[in-house]
Design brief:
single chain; 65 residues; mainly alpha; 2 helices; 75% helix; elongated
Amino acid sequence: MSEKKVRNKFKEYIWDYYLTNRDITRQSDEYNRQNPEKGWSPSAKVYVVIIIVGGIGIFVKYFIL
C-alpha cells in the first residue's frame, strides 16, 4: 500500500490568517498615510471624561467610603 501524505490543516489555517492580516494591515497603513486622522471629536472627549469621572466616583464610593 502507498502511504498517504499527511496534511497539517492547522498550519494552513494559521498561515492563511497571517497572510490575510498582513494584507489588511498593508491596506490600512496605506489608507492612513493618504488620509491622516484628524484626532478625537469634541463629543468623544466628553464621553471619555464622563467615563473616567464615573470610574473615579465608583472607586471612591466602594473602596474609600
